[in-house]
Amino acid sequence: MKSAMTSAPLRVAIIGAGQVADKVHASYYCTREDLELVAVCDSRLSQAQALADKYGNAQVWDDPEKMLRDAQPDIVSVCSPNRFHYEHTMLALEAGCHVMCEKPPAMTPEQALEMCKTARRMGKVLAYDFHHRFALDTQLLREQVVAGVLGEIYVTNARALRRCGVPGWGVFTNKALQGGGPLIDIGVHMLDAAMYVLGFPAVKRVCAHSFQKIGTCKNSGQFGEWDPATYTVEDALFGTIEFHNGGILRLETSFALNIPEQSVMNVNFCGDKAGATLFPAQVYTDQEGELAVLFQRDVADDHRHFRSMEAFVNHVKGEPVTIADAEQGFVIQQLVAALYHSAETGTCVEL
User: Per the database entry, which stretches of residues form a coiled coil (predicted)?
Assistant: First the structure.
């Protein structure tokens, strides 16, 4: 593989030619003159060809091993279904490539840990597209937490909820391919953003409850149709994460839940000096009995995907920028697994 420090454009390949590969990965890579999209791989060769045609002259494959051997990319984006993240990331790392993998990292914590260790052994960058942490709002709130503005944060509420938002495309309702439902799809984003702002405190215990009440009883919603007979994921999951520092993080996530809002994607932090809301970023308290806003953005940053991809590429090129790295990806995968296990067994999980 070519060195990431060479002056020639870095060679980029994409595994999985679906929507996120198109709207996020390929569209970002093609904005940079220091990158060249040279290969697209998908089990559906026609879809790989459509993506390659849209963004230039990349060659196409339906076999990732052959693509890695023949195209010899420097960077690989893994945009395949969740079940294949581990396999495709490991292939790319072992081939000497830096990897940007879509969330979640894998299907199990064991896989995520092996991916992390392999990236270290190969001396390659492995990042995950937890893009909500790259919003300016998230960065600003993290700075406020580090500066002590909120004081001791002892309650965090993370919500990733939809009233009638079961995805009617892809494999989102297939547990075997996806690993789960709203928790592993949208809940994981707010979980990661919350943990990032908190500074990834050590976890003591996880307790959760999940429900499957709606997806198996109807076949359509805001995001299309699905087959209730093959709906094998949860509708909603509610969990509490207890930290060794005494604080708690409460997570609520759903594809289908009868709430007043159409959707909610946000995190609230409660500290002993002030509280905060993530999107748009706001910090508030009271001063001598009067409500006070200490900091406020009017509109949340909507360039999160762009900033996530930019951080990854710049990190590969040697710039000292923060990424959603392999170690933190392993922690998030541990929490997702613990939440699912607790919900399935009815017992709390000690970590």
Answer: none
Tokens of 155: 């309650």
State which residues form the domain around 109.
10-128
Residues 203 and 273 in one domain: yes
- 196 lies in some domain: yes
260 contacts 273 by C-beta, under 8 angstroms: no
Asked if 197 and 213 count as a contact pair (C-beta separation under 8 A), the reply is: no
pLDDT score for 170:
86
Task: Supply angle C-alpha 150, 282, 128, rounded to 5.
Answer: 85
Asked if residue 192 and residue 117 are part of one domain, the reply reads no
**What digits encode the pLDDT tens for the residues 268-301?**
999 999 999 999 999 999 999 999 999 999 999 9
Q: Are residues 155 and 282 in the same domain?
A: yes
Count Cα neighbours of 21 within 13 Å in the Cβ-side half-sphere. Answer: 26
Q: What is the helix (H) or strand (E) element at residue 178, kind and residue range?
A: helix 175-178
Assess if residue 276 is contained within a domain.
Answer: yes
SS3 at position 253: strand
Residues 297, 162, single domain; the answer is: yes
3: DSSP letter:
-
């909507």: which residue's tokens?
302
